[in-house]
Amino acid sequence: xxxxSIDTLVNxxxxxxxxxxxxxxxxxxxxxxxxxxxxxxxxxxxxxxQIYIPFLDLEMASVYDGLHITxxxxxxxxxxxxxxxxxxxxLNRVDIKAKFPDISPEELDAEAYKLTTSQVAKxxxxxxxxxxxxxxxxxxxxxYSAATTExxxxxxxxxxxxxxxxxxYPKGKEEITGFDFEPWHYRYVGNDIANRLYNGGDWITLExxxxxxxxxx
Length: 217
Ligand SMILES: [Zn+2]
Prior knowledge:
Muramoyl-pentapeptide Carboxypeptidase, domain 2; five-stranded antiparallel beta sheet; binds zinc ion
């Protein structure tokens, strides 16, 4: 049985077993429309109970500051992640084909695959499977919205670390994380590490953090 800790690194080089499911998932928001737009109440966003209280504190602080941050997508199973990957792959294939009508089928697949891997994690390689990560959504005038603006994203960028969360895929660190800048994706690592990685707003990645630990050994 795989056991994770709050600083476990999950990425393309460090995948989770596809059968890993956190044992302590808890529904984090009762809005039944906020898991990628699905209206199935069984698909309420879930997170590890270890991040539930820190998340509630963050949510409360955002409300205090006149916003209301909530969760769009928390825990995702490996199978669900695979479906997301395949959906995006198919869309990218269509887009590329429209731009380059003469592309060969082999090239088209290769290009669509390359693009998709920079956008969506493959099965086992998503932090969402840990239960420690979430994508932000918000409430505006009581209405749920998966589309966040600079306001919410800016607030998270400045404040999330105070509650133990890090901006996981910062701008300028795409080569290190292997992912495009994702201003909506946050990962819980606890207050100590989050404060270090915040670095006055010049985010250090979890990859760099783990590398620095190895160097110290
Ligand atoms: Zn995410």
